[in-house]
Amino acid sequence: MNARPAKKPRDRVDGVLLLDKPAGLSSNDALTKAKRVMNAKKAGHTGTLDPFATGLLPLCFGEATKFSQDLLEADKTYEATVHLGIMTATGDTEGEVIERREVDVTLERIEAALARFRGPILQVPPMYSALKRDGKALYEYAREGVTLEREARPVTIHGLELLDYSAPFLKILVTCSKGTYVRVLGEDIGAALGCGAHLSALRRTQVGALVSAGMVTLDALLAHPAPRSLLAPVDALLSSFPALELTGELAQRFLQGQRLALDKQAVAVPEQQGRVRVYHGGKLLGTAILGEFSVLAPERLVSTA
Fold this sequence. Notes:
The strands form four sheets. Strands 1, 2, 3, 4, 7, 10, 11, 12, 13 and 14 form a ten-stranded mixed β-sheet that branches. The chain has a five-stranded mixed β-sheet with strand order 15-17-18-19-16, with helices on one face. It is globular, with a radius of gyration of 23 Å. It has 305 residues and is an alpha+beta fold. Strand 17 (274-280) and strand 18 (283-290) form a beta hairpin. The longest helix has 12 residues, at 27-38. It contains seven helices and 19 strands. It has three domains: 15-74 and 210-237, Pseudouridine synthase, CATH 3.30.2350; 76-207, Pseudouridine synthase, CATH 3.30.2350; 241-301, Archaeosine Trna-guanine Transglycosylase, Chain: A, domain 4.
C-alpha cells in the first residue's frame, strides 16, 4: 500500500483581505477558498453575506482574528435593488415566488415610505436566517414548512437614500447598525407601498472604516502569484482608534498584561479616554483601554513571536 503524501503544513499568516464576494457563494465557502490559497493556519470572516449578495467581505487571518468582533459590531453600508410587486418565501431571489401584485407608485410615495424607516426601528428577523431557536437555525424550521413567532428587535437605519427608480426596480443606499436584515427592510418598504417586494440584488460597500476601494475578487486572488501581498496589515481593522506609541520598557510590561500609569512627559497620550491601538517601534502590540489619570489597561494583545 502506498502511503498518502503528507499534507503541506499551514503557515502563520497575519492580515486582512478585503474580498469582493461573488454571488452564489456562501461566506464560509469564500473563506475556505481564501484560506487554502493563503495556506493559512487560522482565518475567520467578520459577519456573513447571503449567498446571493456580493461585495465587501473582510477576511481575517492569524492575529487579525482577535479583532474580528469589532467588525461584527460595526455599521455597514449596502446598495440594494428592491423588486416591487413580487414577494418571495425568502425575501430575496433564492426563494419561490409566493405572491404578485400590481405596482403603481410615485416618487413622492416612495420618498414618504423611505422616511418611515430612517432612524431607530423595530425589525422582525426573517424565518430564513441563521438565528437559533432551541439549538436549531430558523431556516431549518422554515425548510420544514414551520413558521415560528419572532420578536421584533431594535436596529438603526443611519442612512436610507433613493438612488434610482425604474419601475418595478427601486435602488437604495442603506447604512445600518449590526443585526439589520436588508432583505426584511426591502420587504417592509414594499409592504409600506402596498405592493410587496423582495431583494433582487444586494452589494455591501462598507464595514466600519473598511471600504470597497481595496477589494480583491476571488478570481484575482486565485490567479495572483503572491496572494499574501494582497493582505492589509492587522491594524487596518483598528484605524478608527487613536494610536499610542510606547517605549521599549513599557512595551515589554504591556505585553506581559500589566496596567501602566503613563507619564505624559515620556509618552504622547491621546486626549480622549477609551480604546486605543498600542505600538512600539511602529509595530502593533494590541489594543488597550485608556482610563483616568492616563492608566493604560491591556485588552487584546498581538503575538510578536
